[in-house]
Amino acid sequence: MGRLIGVAGGAAVMLAAWLASVAGGVAAEALGPVTRLPLPRYVSLNAAEVNVRRGPGTEYRRDWLFKRRGLPVRVIDEYGHWRRIEDHEGAGGWVYHALISGRRTAVVVAEGVLLRAQPAGETGLASCAGLSGGEEALACAEAGVVGRLRACEAHWCEIEAEGYRGWVPKAAIWGADAEETFER
């Protein structure tokens, strides 16, 4: 019993140190132990079929089979040549590193989102209902559409999907963090 108390005591000390660093604004960015890339990070599936396993190796049972090349996933852990991933619904597990790509994609998670020529305001969550074909509206993106991320601003991301390229509200997609901005 003393051993368990010692482990718990050590964990409490580590937790207190972590909380102090976060409270002081000194929390370090987590880096993968293998790639030294940030964790978590967004990537996409690099194959039409990707086995997702319970653990990091072929000896582990296959739990999932993703069947959508380009689907955005988030790497949340690394072990050797294996990456632990999750999708926009929280499903995931371990995949072999060659089955993912650094290419950024996003999946539309809101119903009927307008794809616009330019960002429009802070939210822009205009519905496709009553799409008038105005110069700002390019297309209607339904939930489940996957597109390549080209850029992200504070509230908007530019995506390219099914022959269309335009801006959607960041809140309507999964594949970029709320505070993330970038240009390609």
Give an overview of the whole structure.
The protein has 184 residues and is mainly beta. It contains one helix and 15 strands. The strands form four sheets. Strands 8, 11, 12, 13, 14 and 15 form a six-stranded antiparallel β-sheet that branches. A five-stranded antiparallel β-sheet has the order 6-5-4-1-7, with no helix packed on it. A two-stranded antiparallel sheet has the order 2-3. β2 and β3 (62-66) form a beta hairpin.
Explain briefly what this protein structure is.
The chain is mostly beta strands and 184 residues long.
What is the secondary structure topology, with strand pairs?
Layout: H1 2-23, E1 41-45, E2 50-53, E3 62-66, E4 72-79, E5 82-86, E6 92-96, E7 100-101, E8 105-108, E9 113-116, E10 137-141, E11 146-152, E12 156-161, E13 164-169, E14 173-174, E15 182-183
Antiparallel strand pairs: 1-4, 1-7, 2-3, 4-5, 5-6, 8-11, 8-14, 9-10, 11-12, 11-15, 12-13
Query: Helicity level, as a percent range?
Result: 10-25%
Give the topology string: H per helix, E per strand: HEEEEEEEEEEEEEEE
- The number of helical runs is 1
User: Rough shape?
Assistant: elongated
**What's the total count of β strands?**
15
Mean pLDDT: 84
Report Rg: 20 Å
Largest β sheet strand count, sense and barrel closure = 6 strands, antiparallel
Spans where pLDDT lies below 50 across 5 or more residues = 1-27
Helix-strand category: mainly beta
Report the span from N to C terminus: 56 Å
